[in-house]
Amino acid sequence: MQVNKQTLTVAIVGAGVIGCSWAAVWVRAGHRVAIFDSDISVLEGIRDRLLRNLRDSVGDPQASLAALEAGVVIHSTLEDAVAAADLVHESVAEKVEVKRELFERLDRVSKPEAILASSTSAIPLSQFTEGLLNRHRCVIVHPATPPHTLPATEVVPAPWTDAAVVERTLSLLEEVGQSPVLVKKDHPGFAMNRLQGALLIEMFRLIEAGVVTAADADKLVTDGFALRWAVVGPLQAIDLNADGGLEEYLARYGDIYDRMAMERHETERFVSPSLARELVKQFRDQLPLEQLEAKRSWRDQRIAKLKRLLAKKDSDR
Amino acid sequence: MQVNKQTLTVAIVGAGVIGCSWAAVWVRAGHRVAIFDSDISVLEGIRDRLLRNLRDSVGDPQASLAALEAGVVIHSTLEDAVAAADLVHESVAEKVEVKRELFERLDRVSKPEAILASSTSAIPLSQFTEGLLNRHRCVIVHPATPPHTLPATEVVPAPWTDAAVVERTLSLLEEVGQSPVLVKKDHPGFAMNRLQGALLIEMFRLIEAGVVTAADADKLVTDGFALRWAVVGPLQAIDLNADGGLEEYLARYGDIYDRMAMERHETERFVSPSLARELVKQFRDQLPLEQLEAKRSWRDQRIAKLKRLLAKKDSDR
């Protein structure tokens, strides 16, 4: 949705749910998009899926998208699709052998200066780029699903990824309206799925223990935390939830969460004293205690607006 | 915000952040509110805090609240505050001795048919109501913070809580616009804080391991999951994120999450096969696979609207 400095050509390789969503992200920002999928049965559905993504992301079912659509070309060979690409974005099956073979081909047929990005949600980049001649230009760009709707995006380099490639990828994503986050270690599951996984595991445990139903577990998040977290992140949220900020919150509730951590056979406490000190310092540097109350009002007014918007839910499907 | 069938008198005992937020919930729905706090220094700030909560929750800083304010009386003794109450809502310090002593008094000085509700976030109800003459009318009503902004509310009975009291509490909360969830077992941490705790613990781990910064950990939730979860809960979200629904999602990503569960020394898998089967059945009964794509469009259009609303962020404080 932003004006880009330079029109790029982005090759989308693998045109399933994620690939067609990425295509919408790049094309709506005014870039040229070249699409390829090895599964011929997929090809004819691509344009419909892409148009739906574009309409959904502008929130207007009647929007005229002819101009945007003109920027999209569907190719019948991988070579044609990537030939002119400044960035190649792969969203094929989550199989390491498939990705390894594809990246070997991409490394040969793409322009040597093109960035090679992977949408993988969990396979370490090192497992399928190690042997490449130009492995320094490979980087993981893993989106929240679907990226045309959700801006959060993990950027995960391999040990050999060039720092300039990481910087360029982060700034390109910012320019097209995504919200990129640098994941500094190739940690299993990266960061996003670890956060989601931690919440899902706890939900399954509570449902299995008969504490809440599945629908109610969803409702506790949808009608509670999610509204708050859409305005302030989970850490900032607890900082706002005690008059003395994070420090008071941790002093007051740390024991409860320590018990939770222990129940899970965690060897460490909920939060280490050194991390707690560091976070308290960060939060207080950003927002002095005397401004907490005003920030709470700001948060609450924003949440009230979100709720009014979402209250239209019941008349919708 | 809803028309209530009958005007009630609700006594708010403990007028800190949570008490004044609950007061706003009840008074904006047209009920009479009687407030008491044993800390005299708190009393003079109550009206300001309550007015701010009401303004924030209607989202209009200029709103005239005289009519609502007329429904609020601040009392100087506990006895006066609870004398006429149909529901007494306690939000005092999270100390079991304090609550035990207070509930003993409440049981003596309130109308025998009044519901006695506690906002405790973690102390089992059985620990401070066991010895009461009328313990059958005690129930935990634990809000997401703050309740005048966030509807999600846990209702947790003790083994001796009357089923009719639970039903009445759930329906009163629905009537005043909250989103109550029955927590069927007095599980440590109930359900809400266990969900939040699971996410926070994982965030702290990732920050401590140097994978992401604290600000980026917040951003991954704020600009990603929270937008999705405000529209569809975490379980429904994964159901929508594979063409074959939850069944395909679990088959495809279950291994990743199983590894996460094992790393935490969990003895069980991410999700047991029997729970997985039951959830797949529930989700398919609610939404046949052929309607998944249309539901995704609906989700994405709603998220696009939320994003537009939140994009005003930068011009705000």
Automatic annotation (TrEMBL), chains A, B:
EC number: 1.1.1.45
Domain 3-hydroxyacyl-CoA dehydrogenase NAD binding: 9-185
Keywords of this entry: Cytoplasm, NAD, Oxidoreductase, Phosphoprotein
SUPFAM superfamilies to which the protein is assigned, alphabetical: 6-phosphogluconate dehydrogenase C-terminal domain-like (SSF48179), NAD(P)-binding Rossmann-fold domains (SSF51735)
Family: Belongs to the 3-hydroxyacyl-CoA dehydrogenase family.
Subunit-structure text: Homodimer.
Protein name: L-gulonate 3-dehydrogenase
Species of origin: Paraburkholderia sabiae
